[in-house]
Amino acid sequence: MPAHKKHAFRISVERLGASEAPAEDRVSFEVQHHDDVLDIIHRVSAGTTFSADDARALALGLKLFSGVMLAHRSDPLFSSVQPSIREFIGNLKSRVASTIEERSPEFRSRDAPSERGRQD
């Protein structure tokens, strides 16, 4: 089985409003993720009714959190939230897919069987 491709990202956060923010008001770090986080951000933005900023924050925050949780899955700190996070992610994926399909009827998930070739 081929190894999963890792996507690398640089995440930066800086305080707004100051003309020249001091270094301690800026944080930048790099992460690797098995998913294309930018693609997920775009899909969540397109597939929810949240504002663009809220959708982006939700997608990025959830992917960063779940990535750390997955990397440290045996850490007891995460044991109480793992089932809820998995359920939440499943619900979010379903809502995004459903909303995108409603907005774009030509959109079909890669995993969905083709109606044309189906024989019942």
Helix-strand blueprint:
Layout: E1 7-14, E2 26-33, H1 37-47, H2 52-71, H3 82-103
Antiparallel strand pairs: 1-2
Helix pairs in contact: 1-2, 1-3
Keywords:
44% helix; Ubiquitin-like (UB roll); alpha+beta; 3 helices; globular; 2 strands; single chain
Structure description:
The protein has 120 residues and is of the alpha+beta class. The protein has three helices and two strands. The chain has a single domain, classed as Protein of unknown function DUF3861 (Ubiquitin-like (UB roll), Roll). A two-stranded antiparallel sheet has the order 1-2. The relative contact order is 0.11. Residues 108-120 have low confidence and may be disordered.
The count of helical stretches stands at 3
Overall outline: globular
> What gap, in angstroms, lies between the N and C termini?
33 Å
Rg on CA atoms, Å = 18 Å
Order of helices and strands: EEHHH
- Mind describing the biggest β-sheet? 2 strands, antiparallel
| Biggest β-sheet: strands ordered side by side in the sheet | 1-2
Assign the CATH architecture: Roll
CATH class: Alpha Beta
Q: What is the count of structural domains?
A: 1
**Percentage of helical residues?**
40-55%
Indicate the mean pLDDT.
84
> Which runs of at least 5 residues are low in confidence (pLDDT < 50)?
108-120
By DSSP, the count of extended strands is 2
